[in-house]
Design a protein that fits this description.
The chain has a 4-stranded antiparallel beta sheet with strand order 2-3-1-4. The protein has 3 helices and 4 strands. Helices cover 34% and strands 32% of the residues. The longest helix is centred in the first third of the chain and has 14 residues. By secondary structure, the protein is of the alpha+beta class. It has one domain: 2-Layer Sandwich (Alpha-Beta Plaits), CATH 3.30.70.100.
Length: 96
Amino acid sequence: MKAYAIGSVQMRDDSRVKDYAAKTEAIVARHGGRYLVRGATMEKLEGAGPLPHVMVVIEFPSMEHARAWHSDAKYAPLIKLRQACCDIDLVLAEGM
């Protein structure tokens, strides 16, 4: 069953994000993932909270693939880079 990594991102330092994004893409692909959403153009339909600066949705073949991506040793330094410039709510959700 497919799984989705869903991230709601608030930027603090845009200058480091391009480096993170470029390096992350290859690691996502290595674990069978593909980006479905990776953008900042959004429209709020419901809710009271603020819109994130960026929304990301990555599809993986399974929860195991998604977990393997997030725990990949090559991704660890990129997580630290991301945490230095962004605040993120990141969840894994199993598809239907």
